[in-house]
């Protein structure tokens, strides 16, 4: 489903180049559940951003469902993103002046989905995430856990093939965090590929495949042995 070949991404701060991704090679198959761990600055978020087509690599090849993502226009990338990828971020990234339903519908609106279909899909997502009674609330009228549910509803509303989650429980208390993880894992059980970046070793250990990054390299790629 995903193939990264010799992916490099360098940031230059002053005259100091930083190899955030240093020749990354990675194959991800449909339905996998991966965690990405590693020290701060090791390249985890950069990897997620490249996978999510939010950032482009400087060199190397990224194939998504066999499609070479290189030299694509922003419109083509946006289409691929909206059809195939859902994002969940630590800071939720909800639009403050839009209510839950509007936040969930916003990416569909930008993608040109008609109002009736948007309404149908957002209703299903709101119910699925247990926040139907919060449809008209603004983000600042919601708890952290509820905000993350809205963000999750927005991520899955168009049934993406892969959900990329960057510290999805980072701002949540342990109970809300567990609920969000349970929801993500349910999605994975239904076949969605799931990749979670986390500093939380307990959360990372739940994934069936665990990647460890150091200095822009994947230094460990461990799979759970079945009992
Ligand atoms: N936009 C940018 N400009 C300059 N340097 C950047 C930029 N984004 C990331 N970096 C650098 O690239 C390296 C990798 O950053 P990245 O955010 O991917 O690490 P991370 O493992 O996700 O860290 P953390 O766990 O702290 O979130 C870091 O050294 C960071 O300072």
TrEMBL record:
Pfam families: ABC_tran (PF00005). One of its GO terms (molecular function) is ATP binding. InterPro entries: AAA+_ATPase, ABC_transporter-like_ATP-bd, ABC_transporter-like_CS, MacB-like_ATP-bd, P-loop_NTPase. The keyword Transport applies. Keywords: ATP-binding, Nucleotide-binding, Transport. The keyword DNA-binding does not apply. Signal peptide: none annotated. Residues 2-227 form the ABC transporter domain. It comes from the Bacteria. Belongs to the ABC transporter superfamily. PANTHER family: ABC TRANSPORTER ATP-BINDING PROTEIN MG467-RELATED, LIPOPROTEIN-RELEASING SYSTEM ATP-BINDING PROTEIN LOLD. This is ABC transporter ATP-binding protein.
